[in-house]
Amino acid sequence: MLQISNLSKTYPNGVQALKDVNLNISNGMFGLLGPNGAGKSSLMRTIATLQDADSGSIMFNGIDVFAQKQELRKTLGYLPQEFGVYPKVSAEEMLHYIARLKGIHNDKERSELVKALLEQVNLYNHRTKYLGGYSGGMKQRFGIAQALIGNPKLIIVDEPTAGLDPAERLRFNNLLSEIGENIVVILSTHIVDDVSELCNDMAIIAAGRVVQRGNPEEMLNSYRGKIWSKRVAKEDVARYQEEKKLVLSKLSGGKMVVHIYSDDDPGDGFEQERATLEDIYFANIG
Ligand code: ADP
After folding, report:
1. 14 CB under 6 A from ligand 1?
2. How far is the CA of 248 from the centre of ligand 1 (A)?
3. 186-199 pLDDT, tens digit each
4. Residue 39 CB–ligand 1 contact under 6 Å
5. Is the CB of 42 under 6 A from ligand 1?
6. Whose CA is nearest to atom 5 of ligand 1?
7. Tell me: the pLDDT tens digits for 3-30?
8. pLDDT in tens, 128-153
């Protein structure tokens, strides 16, 4: 169990990136969803011991993360947002290197581990290729392989699918979904579909604050029957924004569609819509 309590962080330039964040996260895939600039990376880097907070605490299975950074690192697998690779090293060589750094010195044990990881992330046939020649999706899958070395109990992946094409994204998400259920996996993302596809628990973060927290299905239930949609002219969107609780406006088949929140039938040509995580996301980030 990861317990984040009253975490706040203001950068020297005055930006308050985290505002009294409280989150308890159990084993399984947890989605941290929020727009760019919400504070996701600040939170991920803090949990990963790469930066300190101004106040608050983080506990993981009895480890006080701020006081026992080395202990936490032994049990952490981290795929950062900006994952640099040495371009002229093969995936196989690099995994051997990282495994040695993580203390796996027995040659046979390490070779078996590296082979198993390469197979797990579907890169075994590309193991001797230079990392510099890997596609974005291959690099991210390699990133997961390196994060899995050392049997981590906490895995953090920060915006892993940004920049991947749809097929690569699907492949990457399938891989993530296969990582053990008996560890904490935190997926930070601004892509709503990543969370709805993968996570059984989630939080929405906006401007440094947790604005929604829970199980996606329960959240959807609480919005059931309250989202209404209508096709409108583009120039009318501003009027709906003023007059109704506008959740989102988006293009669908080249036409503008607005979603509004209303407990009762708003009339005016609106039709009831099945609430999606996208509605909940936009309703909460404002
Ligand atoms: P996200 O990962 O959700 O995009 P970040 O945690 O990267 O959000 O950023 C949150 C806010 O903190 C943003 O306003 C960002 O510009 C600011 N920020 C992030 N890192 C720094 C830093 N090292 N110094 C100053 N401001 C920062």
Report:
1. no
2. 25
3. 999 999 999 999 99
4. yes
5. yes
6. 39
7. 999 999 999 999 999 999 999 999 999 9
8. 999 999 999 999 999 999 999 999 99
DSSP structure string for the chain: -EEEEEEEEE-TTS-EEEEEEEEEE-SEEEEEE--TTSSHHHHHHHHTTSS--SEEEEEETTEETTT-HHHHHHTEEEE-SS----TTSBHHHHHHHHHHHTT---HHHHHHHHHHHHHHTT-GGGTTSBGGG--HHHHHHHHHHHHHTT--SEEEEESTTTT--HHHHHHHHHHHHHS-TTSEEEEEES-HHHHHHH-SEEEEEETTEEEEEE-HHHHHHHHTT-EEEEEE-GGGHHHHHHHS-EEEEEEETTEEEEEEE-SS---TT-EEE---HHHHHHHHH-
pLDDT digits 0-9 by tens, 61-102: 999 999 999 999 999 999 998 878 889 999 999 999 999 998
2-214 is classed CATH 3.40.50.300: yes
Query: How much distance in Å is there from the Cα of 114 to the middle of ligand 1?
Result: 35
Ligand 1: nearest atom to the Cα of 45: 6
